[in-house]
Design a protein that fits this description.
The complex is a heterodimer of chains A (108) and B (121).
Chain A (H helix, E strand, L loop, with lengths): L4 E2 L2 E4 L4 E7 L9 E5 L6 E4 L13 E6 L2 E7 L7 E8 L6 E3 L3 E5 L1
Parallel strand pairs in A: 2-10
Antiparallel strand pairs in A: 1-3, 3-7, 4-5, 4-8, 6-7, 8-9, 8-10
Chain B lengths: L2 E5 L3 E2 L5 E8 L8 E8 L6 E7 L4 E3 L7 E6 L4 E6 L8 E9 L6 E4 L3 E5 L2
Parallel strand pairs in B: 2-11
Antiparallel strand pairs in B: 1-3, 3-8, 4-5, 4-9, 5-6, 7-8, 9-10, 9-11
The chains are: A mainly beta (108), B mainly beta (121).
């Protein structure tokens, strides 16, 4: 299967924790990468691989995988975390990249 | 500092060919440690990988687009290009170019700002 499924939208109170999930068969073989996209901006990777954060990404972002589900957790969400988040991984062949449909995170 | 800049016509006629170029500065597209990719995002919708190319010229494409797309390199200009054939209104999107380091799990970590292409007569 080449599909990754995300919940369309989640909301979180300021300072609280939110988890976004991404489901897909290929996640049993490959880790997910997570991108943050704010309006009018290009995507920025926040988590890649098992649980790696690029330089400059806040440590409140973390990733995990269980079975066919990858998760992105924001611990202590801030107003600047309000954005669309996309999971991304290889398809089941390993030769192509696929994206989830995206999750809009609202910080209340 | 790495920069990628996608450029090309902002308006393409239906059934014609969409052509975009990504100009890279701060890194060589001939380097054997990077892949170069194209993505698109229709207005208000999600991201889609179009394809990627390695410095050898070896390319891989999204199966849903493979019959209509070509990605190529111009090492003399440090550019890589996208051609999408037989476009329709459904191909209207913001197109991004991006780079990822070799290594199976490495993400596309550097993105250009995107070029909006509208398919319309």
């Amino acid at each position: 299967s080449s599909e990754l499924t995300q919940e369309p939208a989640v909301s979180v109170a300021l300072g609280q924790t939110v988890r976004i999930t991404c489901q897909g068969d290929s996640l049993r073989k490959y880790y997910a990468n997570w991108y943050q996209q704010k309006p009018g901006q290009a995507p920025v990777v926040v988590i890649y691989g098992k649980d790696n954060r690029p330089s400059g990404i806040a440590d409140r972002f973390s990733g995990s995988t269980s079975g066919n589900t990858a998760s992105l957790t924001i611990t202590g969400a801030q107003t600047e975390d309000e954005a669309d988040y996309y999971c991304n991984s290889r398809d089941s062949t390993g030769n192509h990249w696929v994206f989830g449909g995206g999750t809009k995170v609202t910080v209340l | 500092q790495l920069q990628l800049q996608a450029s090309g016509p902002g308006l393409v006629q239906p059934s014609e060919t969409l052509s975009l170029t990504c100009t890279v500065s701060g890194a060589s597209i001939s380097s054997g440690i990077y892949y170069w990719g194209w993505f698109r995002q229709p207005p208000g919708k999600g991201l889609e990988w179009i394809g990627s190319i390695f410095y050898t010229g070896s390319a891989s494409y999204n199966p849903s687009l493979e019959s209509r797309v070509t990605i190529s390199l111009d090492t003399s200009k440090n550019q890589f290009s996208l051609r999408l054939f037989s476009v329709t209104a459904a191909d209207t999107a913001l197109f991004y170019c991006a780079r990822r380091k070799t290594g199976y799990q490495n993400p596309f970590d550097s993105w250009g700002q995107g070029a909006l292409v509208t398919v319309s007569s």
